[in-house]
């Protein structure tokens, strides 16, 4: 999936891998649900493996008919737990 040597994928590769549209990836990214993407020299978004995992989680939660605010709450709680475990 990660076709580049730097271990990052394009927004199109991420979308294709998870079966969503590029528009969907942008929607979640612009709302802060995905980890911040790095940018190529041309300004294109580049996503790492953490974004793949996170978008998969978002898709699963949305598949359970949870709203975007509910998904955000769950992800925020998960992030808080992960932060405590790492401390």
Automatic annotation (TrEMBL):
Chain ranges of the HTH merR-type domain: 8-77
SUPFAM superfamilies reported in the protein's UniProt record: Putative DNA-binding domain
The keyword DNA-binding is annotated on this UniProt entry: yes
UniProt xrefs under InterPro entries: DNA-bd_dom_put_sf, MerR-type_HTH_dom, MerR_fam
UniProt-listed SMART domains: HTH_MERR
Keywords: DNA-binding
Entry GO MF terms: DNA binding; DNA-binding transcription factor activity
Keyword Transmembrane helix set for record: no
Pfam families for the chain: MerR_1
The protein's name in its UniProt record: MerR family transcriptional regulator
Organism, as annotated: Streptomyces parvus
